[in-house]
């Protein structure tokens, strides 16, 4: 592709090698030395079917793979540098409910055309006829593609929102993998796995009796009870007359000069 197209792909997601990629592959085969564009956050996981990156053993096989993957996508991102408008019949498919067409302009900006079926509800943030700078183009196109896919799926029968599906999966994990334990054991196994063994060990009583007599003190230790006593006689407390209050009423009153 052209340099602006390749730059757009580098900011649309991360280029990953399919044979080493452990996340969602979107139906792409993990062949060696094959790459695609991948993006994920805390809510979504996307594998883009990039026409210029889909490889095959020959031209016929490559065309078949492109038609199978891109033709079955509900949302298609089209990059066209032709001055004519993009024709929907270019890719003959029963899918492609939403087309996000990107037209590069001579002034460095990009014009967006949104082509959707009548059953698909409105979505954003991009809209038909929007003019976008290249610095924010990949992020806005990615967000619009995600919202377009969600808007398309709301028209399907037995549809549930992504947060409802996540709630169902979490409940399934809880019921299948729940194990009775205490809060203390859970923390011990989560942060310090070796400490879980020490929780089951009961402390043994200390039956050892240690006695030690010295000239100044005696220590008697029995079953972890420690008593400390002093054998030295306590000396009487010294009285300092100059620190005690004077209770003599006949004491002379000091005279001061003014």
Automatic annotation (TrEMBL):
Pfam families: Rap_GAP. This is Rap-GAP domain-containing protein. GO terms for molecular function: GTPase activator activity. GO terms for biological process: regulation of small GTPase mediated signal transduction. InterPro entries: Rap/Ran-GAP_sf, Rap/Ran_GAP_dom, Tuberin/Ral-act_asu. The lineage of its organism: Eukaryota, Metazoa, Spiralia, Gnathifera, Rotifera. Residues 1-173 form the Rap-GAP domain. Keywords: GTPase activation. Gene3D superfamilies: Rap/Ran-GAP (3.40.50.11210). Residues 198-258 are annotated as: Disordered. GO terms for cellular component: cytoplasm; nucleus. Residues 198-214 have a biased composition (Basic and acidic residues). Residues 215-226, 236-258 have a biased composition (Low complexity). It comes from the Eukaryota.
